[in-house]
Amino acid sequence: MFANFLVRPPVPPKPTVVKHSDRSATLQWAQYASSAAHQPIIRFSILVAKTEDGSLRVVSTPDNRTTIKIDGLWPNTRYSFSVRAENAVGESAFGAEAAFRTVGQAPRTAPKITSLTNGTTPFCVELSWDFPELEKEITPIVGFRIMIHRVGTGALREWYVKGNKVRAQTLCTLEAYADYVLTIEADNGFGYSPGETMPFRTDESAPDDPPQLIQIRPVVRGEALYLTWREPSRPNGIVTDYVIYFKDIPSKREMSRLSLSVSPNEPSKAFAYNLTKLLPTTRYKIQLAAATSKGEGMRSEALLADTDYSASRETPAVTNLSFSCDNSLLTLQWTIVPSAIPTGANANFRINLLSSLGQSRIFNVSASETSQKLFIDKVQQSERISLTILATVQSRADPTIWLDGPSSAPAHFVLLAAGWKCHFRSTACPQALSLSKTTICEHFATHSINTQQLFGGQQADQQRGDANGPFVFLIFGAAITLAISVLFTCILRRRCFLFKAFLRHKKDKKNHQKRGPLLAEKGHHIRHKGAESTSLVQRGTNGVQDSVVLPPITVPNGAAGTHTLNSSNNIFSGAETTNSGDASCCDGPEDGDDDEPEELLGMNDGRAATTTVSVLHFDAYFEEMSANANAGFKRQFKELELDTLAMLEREQAAASVSENCAKMMPSSCVNGIMSNNEGEKFKNRYVDVIALPRKSRIQLGDRKGCRQHYINANYVDSCDVKRAYIATQAPLPHTFADFWAMVWQERSNVLVALTNMVESGMKKCDQYWPNCTGDFVQADDFRITLNAQRTNSIFTHRVLQLTKTASSNGKGDDIERTVHQLHFMAWPDHGVPDSPFPLLHFINYVAELIQCPTATAFSANVNGTLAIAAESAPCVVHCSAGLGRSGAFILIDSLRRHLLSCDRIDVVDQLRRIRRQRAQLVQTLEQFIFCHEVLRHLVANGITRQPRTHFANYVRFLLSQRTPAGQRRIRAQFVDLLSCPHRPQQCAPPTAQCVPLPGYHRTNEFLLCFGMPAEREEQVWHKLWQCACQAIVLLDSCSDGQTQFDVPSQFTETDQNGAIKTINLIKTDNIHIHLRRDDGKELFIRLHRIHSTALLHNPWLQIERLQCELQDQHRGQLAVLELGTAVPSAVPFLFCVFQSAACQLEQESAVDVLLWLALYRHAVCGCWTEQTEVELVYRKVLELVELQKTLC
């Protein structure tokens, strides 16, 4: 028998630091093999040695575990750790040491700013500071980080100052007279200290820009010019003076200088001045400049302006006043000094005739006539006539005003006999040689002319006229009463909806009785004499409207039918609407709050609608505004920005600004406006974007007894309906409950999201919905459940169930509603989408859902109860800030709605109106132009997304109807597809180039490759390998369909590190290809060959076979390659259109053919070359629709 005995354990292995912080370290060491004589190990002890001062301490584990956390360490300090083991016999020696340095700790106190002053220039500031107080264990400072934020814009500048001895820095390249917030932080190599913050304003400087929107117009009578302007966009300080430089063009002298002082407390940004003591009928050159206390800024561009004409100072002289008995005409001739009429002026001679018979006549003769002569008829024998002449000039300043010169002396005439002998008396007889032998002219002696004698009979006539005075007054009064009645009736027809409806009902009833019904019994197209072709309506056997044959503008109207508008010449009007010339088509809404101060686009406020455009002229209007680098759009957008600025200034005047904000950071307010409520500030995603104006803000009701009314959201009107939208910011995590409370309160059932979660590395939106189907998230009183979700290459449609829990509604049970979220993800912040067609498709999809939540096949198939909100429930729209993209969506959609009942729109006026409900909607000029581009395509093509039930009528419409220009609709679409949207133009890709194309499911669903010549086949295969294509569709145009397809035995690629790797062909046959890279990565590709003729004859059979053969391979990027042709054709693009349209029709029960045609044109200009290609697509999609009807 052997006795059991124990010995001390061996030395443990060296420990390893597995986790650490600035004041702790976690050690771990390996289990080591030992004999039974060493077991069991009771505990381990760790020797902690501080290298710098040699201090030691021992820490033991509570048991035999091989890991321990050592606390109480100093930051940025070197330590060594060693382990020993202990059993019942004793302890081993400490093992090998593990050296380790703890992490340093960032400074805990901020540096102190001692001074911050303006520098030697307005663009610099001088900063000095003191070092922060550091604890003993904190590592010394190695540098300072200085950050300057521009208040209002969020722009950031950053400086880093190295060294621990620097205590001052000059910071330059700032803007003059701008508000900033400076933050300085200390750095010790392990992090930054808290920041010391100080607001400041840079010094004034001379303005960078001249005054804006300078306008000059002449003043009547020619001695002054009226100037108006606005403050420079960058005044760089308080403008103290405006300087006007002017000179007349003929003069060679220097320009005169006139300085105008501005009142120190002048709040207005718009100014006007009457520049007097100028020469009439003279062209002046004028420049304006603004000045601050630091100097005068740059002058504006030279403007030319003409002063008004002056009245003539010369008197016409009568040279001939005679009578011809042959034609019974009185001839008047006169002369005037040629210089009396200004060159280029519109001038007349006015002749006043006064007769002894009590009649007076006025004649106007153009001064441009070569002969200054007038023939007067109806002259009676013994009638005494007096004539005066004056020159009158039309004012250049006001064309309604004529400037009269001095009148000539009266010329007198009396016809004594008009028989075979012509005898008259005149003050201006012609020369004797010009008179016939039977004509006698006697001169009036000036002293013998007696006015009483000459016009004695006029007094008697006047007395007779006075006797008829009451009768004339009665007739005049009746005429005035009639005119007022007509005017009042016109006002009622335009303003009063009830009266207008009554008149329209009478008119419709009368027209119906006169013309008979407009609709055919079996849906045949009808045309009446003198009328446009009407909409085509199909009716069921019971007389109820079943469907409407497509007009291009189609809006679902519930399950009962569809509201349709169409005519052959105007796709926005039809038999169901009033005539386009009738003002009633643009009248105001039938519903809405009467107390809203803002009017709608359809309500005529009596102002000149200079930007109202008919749909027939919208394309020409777009071209005109786009000319000269979008000069027209730039001018309009600048005026809108100034209008918004004026609105915010009025808001500032009405609001009380926080005293602290005014003292510390006066420009941290948005244009001088910021909420005084800290709780409201906390709810804004961006500090410079708040819900303005206040009158259109959403006011939330109380929840749980708390009055939390503010949310960054505003009501926005459409053209015809008040509060049709809610524009809001993307909700923050702490405002999710407010957001859903607003949706619940306003009974909204459609949410439109126009932003991604993260854009350009910055968070733009927080996810306020669940991730997976069936999951839910809780936001205070609300539970949000994701019932269903469908994603395509353009947008995502989510069906959410919004539940107000029983604990909060006071009714003892949960209340549920269905909310649809439409998420468009292809719109960059402050930018625009690449093409307008996906957005148009998205807007039409949203419109269908708003009109009827079960309109789409997806929403109709979702299980659960659909709570349909009231028609007046607003659509909630948000991007990130709720301004740019949200405003563009609202502007386009509101005008789309307006076009359903009116044939003209005013984009500028509608944007001005909605900006008065949420400031800065449509933030950038690029977005403003993009809205016009989208509307241009909408006006040209109508609503191209068509449900399956209407598609046949839509195709017939395209093939048979014509535009106002006489083109067939299908031809107009093709001509538009021929245009290239790229600048510079991008032509069809060269041979062997691969182009990604979007499909219904993904934005890069197809990879289109054009030919494979031997010298370029490696580029194509490199692209196929890079995209990991698992399937290739070979479109063979050869007659036998057996064009050889070669696969290289080997090709190379270069990875990110520059290493060249070889890909080898392992196996190939007619169906499969197997590739392997030298590092072992493999790619299996399946081939599918389709004859081009078979595809064009029956594309749906070929696509169905393709889906069955490829199975799961089509989930990746599908490569499409054309064989057997030297020149790329449209066949690969047709294949992609067929595939995308079929998937869309299957998923949505609707299809938008133009969407895919335009997207592929946008990717490759010139992909469509023949109109027959476009017609083929429509006809084949129609065959698929009819085939699906047969199968169903």
TrEMBL record:
Chemical reaction(s) catalysed: O-phospho-L-tyrosyl-[protein] + H2O = L-tyrosyl-[protein] + phosphate
Cell location: Membrane
Domain Fibronectin type-III: 9-105, 107-205, 210-310
Residue ranges of the TM segments: 471-492
SMART domains registered for this protein in UniProt: FN3 (SM00060), PTPc (SM00194), PTPc_motif (SM00404)
Residue stretches making up the Tyrosine-protein phosphatase domain: 683-938
Gene Ontology cellular-component terms listed: membrane
PROSITE patterns: FN3 (PS50853), TYR_PHOSPHATASE_1 (PS00383), TYR_PHOSPHATASE_2 (PS50056), TYR_PHOSPHATASE_PTP (PS50055)
Gene3D superfamilies, sorted: Immunoglobulins, Protein tyrosine phosphatase superfamily
Residue ranges annotated for the Tyrosine specific protein phosphatases domain, each copy included: 840-929
The keyword Nucleotidyltransferase belongs to this UniProt entry's keyword annotation: no
Topology in the lipid bilayer: Single-pass membrane protein
Keyword Hydrolase: yes
A GO molecular-function annotation: protein tyrosine phosphatase activity
Alphabetical UniProt keywords: Hydrolase, Membrane, Protein phosphatase, Signal, Transmembrane, Transmembrane helix
Name recorded for this polypeptide: Protein-tyrosine-phosphatase
